[in-house]
Design brief:
This protein is of the alpha/beta class and 354 residues long. Helix content is 45%, strand content 11%. The protein contains 15 helices and nine strands. The strands form two sheets. It has a seven-stranded parallel β-sheet with strand order 1-4-5-6-7-8-9. The chain is globular.
């Protein structure tokens, strides 16, 4: 079994024969087979069963032909180890039974115990490490995004309680950021030790902040996470979520390899704002997948043409897949990205370094 390392090579800005592709939420509700599993088990129940979680991780790999497998899990899983009670509620998302609202609430958060409380996730990673011939991408939720759930008690549009703590109690806010940063560092290190071949830090909602507030209240913790994990010889991806284009210039000193871009900014402009320091990932608008296939290919071609102008490009969506997406269109899109980029790279459209 030959190992496909395109994603790893692209992450390190090395030469590839075609553009690697994977999709955020590629194991999910767009797949009828997955929907049948969800009729029997909740997301958290699937995560508790390593063999089943591994199988759900593998399903889109077999069906789509992607170059990376994303661990079937949820960004909320590690917070259970801190002493947070939550559920993933249909059509809502994470709902917290005991939200963080005071200094006492922050104080009661325990250090994460990955081996003790989250051994099922590590076992899933070990199973996949034996099964896969492509890299397994594991992930964690970034501290701001996790904090927004913990403080609001559920998903929010305005983040009023979160920003109130940030602005009114900055010392308490930074203490919470420190504890969540510690959680991420310990959690990801355990993933890599058990077979994770790359990881992504999801900061889905940090685009709600201005660049100034991001630099003050969030970036120090993000910087610490990647600095403390810099010894891990795996691709490190930071996805600052939707509407985050204005934050990109603040990221230039991160010790990471790849920055994920959403569809609101072009690949070329994203690279410019990042100072050309990172490989980039993205950034097809997921909802283009509702369009006819010729429109999807036209949009993908434009993105690929920009992506391969410089070394270090991974094709992905600008956010996660949605339930109404078509499995057949995704399969065709994946093949198109591979075939078109292989021809374009063969013709020497891009500069490479190795």
């Amino acid at each position: 079994m030959s190992y496909n390392d395109r994603l790893i090579r692209a992450s390190f800005k090395q030469q590839v024969d075609r553009v690697p592709v994977w999709y955020m939420r590629q194991a999910g509700r767009y797949d009828p087979e997955y929907r049948k599993i969800k009729e029997k088990y909740s997301l958290l129940e699937i995560c508790q069963q390593p063999e089943l979680a591994a199988e759900v991780t593998l399903m889109p790999v077999r069906k789509l032909g992607v170059d990376g497998a994303i661990l079937y899990s949820d960004i909320m899983n590690p917070v259970a180890s801190l002493g947070i009670d939550f559920d993933i509620v249909k059509n809502i998302g994470p709902v917290i039974d005991n939200p963080i609202r005071s200094a006492a609430d922050v104080e009661r958060l325990r250090p994460i115990d990955v081996e003790g409380d989250l051994s099922h996730i590590l076992e899933t990673i070990r199973i996949l490490d034996k099964e896969l011939d492509i890299p397994l991408i594991t992930f964690a939720g970034a501290p701001f995004t996790i904090a927004s759930y913990l403080i609001e008690g559920q998903p929010s549009k305005g983040y009023i309680r979160t920003k109130t703590m940030m602005y009114s109690e900055p010392e308490l806010w930074h203490k919470l950021m420190q504890k969540l940063g510690d959680m991420v560092i310990t959690y990801i290190r355990a993933h890599v030790a058990n077979g994770g071949k790359a990881f992504q830090l999801f900061d889905s909602w940090v685009g709600a902040l201005s660049p100034k507030d991001f630099k003050t209240y969030v970036l120090p913790t993000i910087t610490r996470i990647f600095t403390e994990l810099s010894d891990l010889n795996v691709p490190k991806i930071y996805f600052p979520g939707v509407a985050s284009g204005e934050l990109l210039p603040t990221l230039q000193n991160l010790q990471t390899n790849v920055i994920g871009l959403d569809w609101r900014i072009s690949i070329s402009e994203g690279r410019r704002r990042l100072g050309g320091k990172f490989a980039v990932q993205g950034n097809l608008d997921p909802y283009i997948l509702t369009a006819p296939m010729d429109v999807i290919k036209e949009q993908a071609k434009a993105i690929i043409d920009e992506g391969i102008k410089e070394p270090g490009y991974i094709f992905n969506l600008g956010h996660g897949l949605f339930p109404e997406a078509s499995l057949e269109k995704l399969k065709e899109l994946t093949a198109y990205v591979h075939d078109y980029s292989a021809e374009a790279l063969k013709m020497g459209v891009t500069v490479t370094n190795d």
